[in-house]
Specification:
Oligomer: single chain
CATH architecture of the largest domain: 3-Layer(aba) Sandwich
Distance between the termini: 7 Å
Helix content: 25-40%
Order of helices and strands: EEEHEHEHEHEEHEEEHEHEHEHEH
Strand content: 15-25%
Radius of gyration: 18 Å
Strand order of the largest sheet: 5-4-1-13-14-15
CATH topology of the largest domain: Rossmann fold
Number of helices: 10
Number of domains: 2
CATH superfamily of the largest domain: HAD superfamily/HAD-like
Length: about 260
Amino acid sequence: MLNEKKLFLLDIDGTVCKGTQLLDGVKSFLEDTKSNGGKCLFITNNATKSVTDYKKLFRQMGLEVEEEDFVTTAVVTAEYLHRHHENETIFVLGTDSFIQELEEKGITVTQDPDNISITCVVVSYDNQLTYQKLENTCKVLTMRDVDYIATNPDLVCPNEFGYIPDCGSICEMIGHAVQRKPRYMGKPDTAIVKFAMKKAGMIKAQALLVGDRLYTDIACGNRAGIDTALVLTGEATKEDVEHSSYRPTYLIDSIAALHREWKTS
């Protein structure tokens, strides 16, 4: 039942906002959740922004949030790199903010494809993408026997006018050139949900994952064994649900509608 939920794991793009546009009902939902002893954590596959960037963006949209309210794929990626490539050199295709966040977490980063110390390639969504970056990444993956990971499999990212290519599309391009696919760190991999639940100190029965994509958000919740709510403010439609193997626990128009259902359940 919705009224038993105390931890809301909220996707950001297409669920909470589109670009810099806050979606209707989000602010009141966050305030009501907090006043009733619940907690909202924002979990996102978007690695272009650091948790500091997200705090600034959300506050500009009128939301009272702190850095600890965000769990990004940059956080999960850094954990993977510390486990499997401690004190090694990592080649990264990504934004300056993503690279800075990895470096702040103690990761040694290079963008030089000729660096002989590279043991792993990391690809992320990059709104500063150039053809030279693609060529350099392909060079490392072709010439070296290195680990290959990426932040998230999302093919597109919603914004104010529609959609733009996301990390999954960048990896598709690279894959056609080098015949390799990465291991993805973000949703639908369950690591980000497990990290968030441990951070909040709550159990599966108390959690609800809310998102707009079947193949990342809902798939992640299904794999993690927690309830999910698909909102129709982003990518997925009702018709998509009918043809998908990923089944949300709840199909809801928006965060505003979720708020109403939660209060009356």
